[in-house]
Amino acid sequence: MAAPARGEILRRAGDLLDTRADAIGHDLAREEGKTLGEGVGETRRAAAIFRYYAAQTLEPDGETYPSASPRTFLFARREPVGVVTAITPWNFPIAIPAWKLAPALAYGNTVVWKPAELVPLTSVRLLEALLDAGVPEGVLNLVVGRGSVVGDTLVTHPSVDAISFTGSNSVGRAIQLKATERGKKVQLELGGKNPAVVLADADLELAAEHVARGAFLSAGQKCTATSRVIIDQAVFEPFAERLAQRAVEWPLGDALDPTTKVGPLASDQQLQTVLGYLETARTERASIVAGGDRNDDLGSGYFVRPTVLTDVDPTSTIVREEIFGPVAALLAADSYEDAVEIANDTPFGLSASVFTNDLDSALRFARDIRAGVVKVNQESAGLEYHVPFGGTKGSSSGSREQGKAAREFYTEWKTIYIDPGTPGG
Ligand code: NAD
After folding, report:
1. How many Å apart are CA 241 and CA 243, to the nearest integer?
2. CA dist., res. 272 & res. 276, Å (int)
3. Residue with the nearest Cα to atom 11 of ligand 1?
4. Which end of the chain is more exposed for a tag (fewer CB within 10 A), N or C?
């Protein structure tokens, strides 16, 4: 199929997702526990992603080059990689698949997609929109099942040319090994332990609001969530008070209740993991200034109160490991240099924030921090769909998704020499 025709299908898929956003967002909230607003917002974002890649199908797909021979027409063009396996997590069950499927299809690949076990309904909703929009039979294939059962085949099958994976570090690195030893292209987007640095000159109200958003919205189940907050000693107490106030006051509850700001965790397994980390925090003698436990008043749901921890050791488990829950650990810094050193002291490098009114400090931080995404006076989570997204260090395999950057992964160059068939022609 010609690229513009593929684009038309993707545009229709985007429009269908917009039309169905309320219903799909509702399903997403019921299935994954994200609030209704977040679920509908995520679906609309996916719609925009499909329309963006629809437009990309009209962009130039190659370059011409001067050749040493004046008779030669020399050009290179991007061709599809082939069959792509997309493996996605449960925490953005519509948006993450969208930012893999849309470029994979736009650039002419076929896809086998394996969503996370927790979100079959929302995955089917996304598939329906694409099939209803006219994706031809066989081009997009949904496989549901446990990663440990179906995963290996999807990664190692000889017909698979490339694997795009988003999920945990342990699963991702194992997939990378299997894929590379078979000569397949592989892309990993993994976890984070994202810092927010609050400098002494920051607007503390703004900083507390954005750190709370980064740490507590979606119950902290975002790879770009803020989980370490590094605060200049001079403003530590007033900042901690403001953050704790939000942790206590932000409504926690039923994902479908429009007044809810923080919904439940996605599963019992997530609940046990997060409660386990809170237990570790106690063992590691952290002080709990807000939250720190399950909210039993809300019945048997997986509700964990937004939590603020202080007196944490930079080497402790809760500061080193990704928790994937509504938990912010606060660390004090003596200077800008000290703050950056603490911020960079992590195996991860996905996103980071700095709060300051000083342009010099903002620019220095943007240079000094080792992260794929840096935000000044904004929460660490969230990125628009037309810019490159990915991490450094342990957060990624080094590639980038979204925007034009996605083209690198889903296509490969072919270089073509054409000479006239008749010598002297
Ligand atoms: P996970 O690694 O448990 O699962 C991710 C996907 O891999 C699921 O579809 C799962 O079924 C599949 N899988 C599991 N074992 C497999 C195997 N052996 N072979 C093939 N596939 C297998 O991760 P999760 O719990 O679903 O997601 C949470 C993690 O994802 C967090 O670490 C989070 O930081 C990360 N994440 C990263 C980004 C990013 O863009 N960097 C975005 C969202 C989430």
Report:
1. 6
2. 6
3. 147
4. C
Alpha carbon distances (Å) from 107 to 61, 80, 95, 130, 228: 9, 6, 18, 16, 38
What is the C-alpha separation between 215 and 209, in angstroms, rounded?
Answer: 10
Q: Which of 32, 38, 42, 189 is catalytic?
A: 189
Domain-wise residue ranges, the chain: 3-190+396-418, 194-376
Residue 300: pLDDT band with limits 50, 70, 90: confident
C-alpha–C-alpha distance, residues 11 and 47, integer Å: 8
Give me ligand 1 centre to Cα 168, in Å.
4
pLDDT tens track for 111-153 = 999 999 999 999 999 999 999 999 999 999 999 999 999 999 9
Can you name the residues that pair with 62 across neighbouring β-strands? 77
Q: Ligand 1: which residues within 6 Å by Cβ?
A: 87-92, 96, 114-117, 147-148, 151-152, 155, 166-168, 171, 175, 189-192, 223, 322, 324, 350, 391, 395
Domain 194-376 has CATH 3.40.50.10260: no
CATH tag for 3-190+396-418 (out of 3.40.605.10, 3.30.70.20, 3.40.50.150, 2.60.370.10): 3.40.605.10
C-alpha 389/C-alpha 90 separation (Å) is 18
Give Dmax over CA atoms of the chain in angstroms.
87
User: Measuring CA to CA, how many Å separate 372 from each of 33, 98, 189, 236, 349?
Assistant: 28, 20, 11, 27, 6
Mutate to test the pocket of ligand 1, among 168, 320, 409 (most ligand atoms within 8 A of CB): 168
Say whether 189 is catalytic: yes
- To which residue do tokens 């927790």 refer? 118
Structure tokens at 206: 């703004």
Whole-angstrom Cα distance, residue 163 to residue 185?
6
Pick the catalytic residue: 38, 42, 223, 379? 223
Inter-residue contact 343 to 195 (CB < 8 Å): yes
Torsions phi, psi for 389 (to 5 deg): -130, 130
